Amino acid sequence: MAIRLEKINYIYSPGTAYEKHALKDIDLEIPDGQFLGIIGHTGSGKSTLIQHLNGLLKATSGKLYYNGENIYDEGFNLAALRSQVGLVFQYPEYQLFEADVFTDVCFGPKNLGLSKEECEIRAKEALELVGFPEKYYHQSPFELSGGQKRRAAIAGVLAMRPKVLVLDEPTAGLDPKGRDEILEQIRHLHEQTDMAVVLVSHSMEDIAKYVERIIVMNRGEKMLDGTPKEVFSHYRELEQVGLAAPQVTYIMHDLKECGLPVRTDATTIEEAAEEIMRSFHD
């Protein structure tokens, strides 16, 4: 088991007028190699939750285990944890600061104490994994497009060779083509490595298409936890907390109400098309 949270609570500004209970008794297990999606409206606690996974935030109460060790125990090596649980923020410019992309991606391995040669090997490997064009390796990261910045930021984390990759809205602000390219690259990474991937997204279509399990956060609590089909079957409950199911879920329910004998648990366009064709064939 890679990560396990037990009764995690987090309170912002405790004892002040601005006190906010952001996480409430969160129990959660993230197995090795799982592709997990986290959804929730703004202020639901999802970003606060993922910042606990590598110790950027320390819980007000509760326990968080990484490979069986409580990261809050005295003497636990948080630096080692952060090399194993890599976090890519929503805005990649927060993580890019060196003179050129290649040097930036080398930064993480360098902090691990690796040789210059090994750092460069890892940087090149990571940039290739995210499909970053070699002609831009020695360009300033601040001259890149939004999608290129996102790839460079992800490569900087991958160069550490983490066991868990955590991505906070990795497609925010990108056009549809850039969004699809980034998500396909993330799916490729998950398929080619043994990494667990945690994806935070507002897009129900993206979550339904790529992840194998979904956590729904609401007001600091874990509201739902299951496969995309299980979670989106509660689409009416999701609507009540400001969320929705993928559009195909609504289409399938509408077709069912119109008399077409279709199953309503499709969560992707491909599944919906297959089910509609099956119903006509039958």
Would you write up a description of this structure?
There is one protein chain. The protein has 282 residues and is α/β, with parallel strands linked by helices. The chain has one domain: 3-Layer(aba) Sandwich (Rossmann fold). Helix content is 39%, strand content 21%. It contains 11 helices and 10 strands. The strands form 2 sheets. A 6-stranded mixed beta sheet has the order 6-7-8-3-9-10, with helices on both faces. A hairpin with a 2-residue loop joins β4 and β5 (69-70). It is globular and about 65 Å long.
Work out the helicity level. 25-40%
Instruction: Please trace the helix and strand order, writing H or E for each element.
Output: EEEHEEHEHHHEHEHEEHHHH
Average pLDDT reading: 91
* Largest sheet entry: 6 strands, mixed
Q: Rg to the nearest angstrom?
A: 20 Å
Beta-strand proportion: 15-25%
Q: Kindly report the name of the CATH homologous superfamily.
A: P-loop containing nucleotide triphosphate hydrolases
CATH hierarchy: architecture: 3-Layer(aba) Sandwich
What would CATH call the class? Alpha Beta
Strand order of the main beta sheet, please? 6-7-8-3-9-10
Low-confidence stretches: none
**Domain tally:** 1
